[in-house]
Design goal:
By secondary structure, this protein is an alpha/beta fold. The protein folds into 3 domains: 364 residues, TIM Barrel (Alpha-Beta Barrel); 209 residues, Rossmann fold (3-Layer(aba) Sandwich), CATH 3.40.50.1700; 126 residues, Immunoglobulins (Immunoglobulin-like). Helices cover 24% and strands 17% of the residues. The protein is built from 23 helices and 29 strands. Helix 3 packs across helix 13, helix 6 packs across helix 7 and helix 7 runs parallel beside helix 9. The longest helix has 18 residues. The radius of gyration is 27 Å and the shape is globular. The two termini are 46 Å apart. Bound molecules: 1-deoxynojirimycin. 1-deoxynojirimycin binds next to strand 4. 1-deoxynojirimycin (NOJ) binds next to strand 4.
């Protein structure tokens, strides 16, 4: 066992923010056996089909569906083996969260962080549907997204932009809407990276150490929402969690995900994140990708033939293998792939029409790209999301919206086309021209990218506005000259980050600092020196330090345009010219100094397993700023509109018929086995004359010698009925967690003179002095004509009101008073009321 079990009990009593050392935090109790899937709401029919399918498979066929065929072995980012006997093709897994990666005629959607900035459930859902439709149209079975890990503990985390921001509630709503949307198109979503992959430095060796309360209240929370939304797959992460690798961590996979959250789908490894055969199988891994992993032995894989060997020696139980395949197939049937699957019509490894089918082996020349156009009318949706994700931070004297200004000067490289074309660098590992996505696997090829300068020039032409454009960042004289002549100077700057398999400008995925790139600060300063109507536009992966811009009196407006995807310029023009009244609210805090967040990326370590202690507990982002009374530049949830809103009449109504919580009890059924495995090892050899494709991973064994008897580990093989955890239950945990205890209403009025959309936010104080001042527990999107009033309603569930009790291993209401607040941001809490809880 690779489990570090010492001091497990001590852990449970640790509370968040206790400043515990790595040693104290670095363990969770191992949890066996691996829970077997059993169906449940939304899954029953899929399980009936999956069991019937798996019952008829041979050992080798079962193994084949659990194991990738190798890196670049076949057409997709990852491919499982197939079942040729019954014409079941290999399953295709494809990146990534902003669209179909490595193909053509696809769309590039706004990144997760921008999608979250809309605070719009309907846009998040529609984005998910459109993304799902594009994957389905390319023949993909499993879409590798969305992302809620990293959550965004540290603002410099390289992959934060892929996800929906550091608040678990917002993140949870966003991930659920995305999954429901994507899976409705008939593809399986794989939510990733589970869990605590919070930085890119040392991602394959670092141990993220934390306590049980923080796990539940922060990092696990959005995964619970993903499971509740019916996600078909979860991708386990590269890092270790309390010193055990994510993909062989029985605590996070068996206990939390499959037992407590009742996850019924399958766990797939991140690419190369599997490091063992038996331990990963028993800890709850169901599929390994890309299959060839880091195992250098005779099978070229931790599974494949090696899994077959371990099935034959009975080191792994049949019910566990059956469960892996049933979970995979249940996800397949749940989203309707049995009726919706079409041929895989592209290759990830070439854009040419003809090429190698088996890329790694360089064999099988054929037509691999049919160039299927899956874009439909998604451009319009992307434009709308990009606009509604744009956050207006400052707007002095109604500088915006622009109304046919006499002249505009557009200044800065971030407004321009990349001279090498939008896809000029592989995986977007460069920062040339306007920034509309980060770098790494969360990229897709742009079909086109509307640069802000292009869209602004078009608008200027239509308005008869004199237009000038300064394309570089470093000729400050040219910038000043253009700016001083213009009635409005619009200056652009950006900050990038990405996946830590490579470095950009010295940033190994994670950002080295939180300042603007390519001299952006100096450029803005120069422009603002000469033009009192300077509008600043920032494209960035997360917060940058902008207090000097905020307080500069010549900066009349600031917009954060996030990572808007292919319609960047058009979305921005819609906001600048008031076609869209800004509704974006920042999904993270903008501090004044990098030290304001109280955490830091571990940039240097000589340890084999660098230790990153999450000693701040649940106090990340605004929760930390609030506790430490640090004034940010812009707080979580903040954003201006071209109109104003007033808040009145908070009413909290107890839902008496629902307000109960009963810890779950009882037992699961015992594990079943489906079909009989042929234990004659000779029959696991490749058939006579079988010609292997080089570098391809197969389920066959290498020699027919019967395996020696082995000692098995009883807990991992135990297939008897298992206790249901108090917080456990099907698909998301104990259903009582989601019972609505209070409906909170408030009246919102548009008190300005243009129509606009407000994002009223509900926060809760859990009352205890050791808890965050407030936490987000609701939001709505309400569009109002001038003078109009609407009542918004928030459902407050038991989970929202309670805290994780590590000792009881359950969600409990603490003895402290609970107060609800409704307001326009985490620091603009306009209405409040203490809740009267039922006794
Ligand atoms: C590693 C990344 O962490 C993951 O997000 C991605 O899906 C795989 N590589 C496949 O590209």
């Amino acid at each position: 066992m690779r489990i570090h079990a010492a001091a497990a009990a001590a852990l449970l009593s640790l509370s968040a923010g206790s400043g515990a050392s790595a040693q104290e935090l670095a363990t969770f109790e191992p949890s066996f056996p691996s829970p077997w899937g059993g169906g449940g709401p939304g899954w029953d029919e899929a399980y009936v089909k999956a069991r019937a399918f798996v019952r008829n498979l041979t050992l080798l066929e079962k193994v084949n569906l659990t194991t990738g065929t190798g890196n670049q072995a076949d057409l997709c980012t990852g491919n499982t083996g197939s079942v040729p006997r019954i014409g079941f093709r290999s399953l295709c897994l494809q990146d990534g969260p902003v669209g179909v990666r490595y193909t053509d005629l696809n769309s590039v959607f706004p990144a997760g962080i921008s999608a979250a900035a809309t605070w719009s459930r309907s846009l998040l859902r529609r984005r998910g549907e459109a993304i799902g439709a594009e994957f389905a149209g390319k023949g993909v079975d499993i879409h590798l997204g969305p992302v809620v890990g990293p959550l965004g503990r540290d603002p410099a985390g390289g992959r934060n932009f892929e996800a929906f921001g550091p608040d678990p509630y917002l993140s949870g709503v966003a991930v659920a809407e995305t999954i429901i949307g994507a899976q409705s198109a008939g593809v399986v979503a794989s939510v990733k990276h589970y869990v605590l992959n919070e930085q890119e430095h040392f991602r394959g060796s670092i141990s993220s150490n934390l306590d049980d309360k923080t796990m539940h209240e922060l990092y696990l929370w959005p995964f619970a929402d993903a499971v509740r939304a019916g996600v078909g797959s979860v991708m386990c992460s590269y890092n270790k969690i309390n010193n055990t690798y994510g993909c062989e961590n029985s605590y996070v996979l068996n206990k939390l995900l499959k037992n407590e959250l009742g996850f019924q789908g399958f766990v797939v490894s991140d690419w190369g994140a599997q490091h063992s055969t038996i331990d990963s199988a028993n800890a709850g891994l169901d599929m390994t990708m890309p299959g060839d992993g880091d195992y250098g032995g005779a099978y070229g894989s931790w599974w494949g033939g090696l899994l077959t060997e371990n099935m034959l020696s009975q080191a792994i139980s049949q019910w566990r293998l059956d469960d892996m395949v049933i979970r995979i197939m249940a996800a397949f049937y749940k989203v309707g792939r049995d009726t919706k699957q079409i041929d895989i019509n592209y290759s990830s490894w070439t854009l040419e029409t003809e090429g190698y089918r088996y890329w790694a082996a360089k064999t099988g020349n054929q037509i691999v790209n049919q160039h299927v156009d899956v874009q439909a009318d998604h451009g319009a949706l992307i434009r709308e999301i990009g606009a509604k994700a744009t956050v207006l931070f400052k707007n002095v004297g109604k500088a915006l919206p622009l109304v046919k200004p006499e002249s505009i000067a557009v200044i800065g490289e971030d407004a321009q086309d990349n001279p090498d074309g939008p896809n000029g660098c592989v995986d977007r590992i460069c920062n040339n021209g306007t920034l509309a996505m980060g770098w790494g696997s969360a990229t897709a090829e742009y079909p086109y990218l509307i640069a802000p300068a292009t869209a602004l020039e078009k608008q200027a032409e239509a308005d008869g506005t004199v237009f000038t454009n300064v394309k570089g960042n470093f000729d400050l004289d040219a910038a000043r000259a253009a700016a001083s002549e213009a009635s409005v100077a619009i200056v652009f700057a950006n900050a990038n980050s990405g996946e830590g398999y490579t470095t950009l400008d010295g940033n190994f995925g994670d950002r080295n600092n939180l300042t603007l790139w390519k001299g952006g600060d100096e450029l803005i300063q120069a422009v603002a020196e000469v033009n009192p109507n300077t509008v600043v536009v920032i494209h960035s992966v997360g917060p940058v330090l902008i207090d000097h811009i905020k307080t500069n009196p010549n900066v009349s407006a600031i917009l954060w345009a996030g990572l808007p995807g292919q319609e960047s310029g058009n979305s921005l023009v819609d906001v600048l010219y008031g076609v869209v009244n800004p509704q974006g609210r920042t999904p993270f805090t903008w501090g004044k100094n990098a030290s304001d967040w109280g955490v830091s990326i571990l940039f240097n370590s000589s340890e084999a397993t660098p230790q990153q202690d999450f000693a701040e507990g649940v106090f990340i982002d605004y929760r930390y700023f609030d506790r430490e009374e640090i004034e940010p530049s812009f707080e979580f949830g903040f954003g201006l509109s071209y109109t104003n809103f007033t808040y009145e009449n908070l009413v909290a109504t107890l839902q008496e018929d629902q307000a109960t919580y009963t810890p779950a009890s009882g037992e699961t059924p015992a594990a079943q086995m489906y079909g009989f495995l042929d234990m004659d090892k000779a029959n696991a050899m490749p058939p006579e004359g079988f010609e292997k494709i080089p570098k391809f991973i197969y389920p066959y064994v290498n020699d027919p010698t019967p395996p020696p008897p082995i000692d098995i580990d009883p807990p991992t093989h135990n297939r008897s009925a298992q206790p249901i955890l108090p917080a456990g239950g099907p698909s998301g945990g104990n259903p009582d967690l989601y019972k609505i205890w209070f409906v909170v209403t408030a009246d919102i009025t548009n008190s300005g003179d243009v129509a606009g959309t407000e994002i009223p936010q509900l926060y809760i104080s859990h009352g205890a002095p050791t808890e965050p001042k407030v936490v987000l527990r609701g939001f709505d999107e309400v569009t109002l004509e001038p003078g109009e009033t609407k009542t918004v309603a928030f459902n407050v569930a038991y989970r929202d009101l309670s805290n994780w009790d590590a000792e009881a291993q359950d969600w409990k209401l603490t003895e402290y008073p609970k107060t609800v607040y409704v307001g326009a941001s985490s620091r603009d809490l306009r209405l409040q009321q203490e809740l009267t809880l039922p006794s």
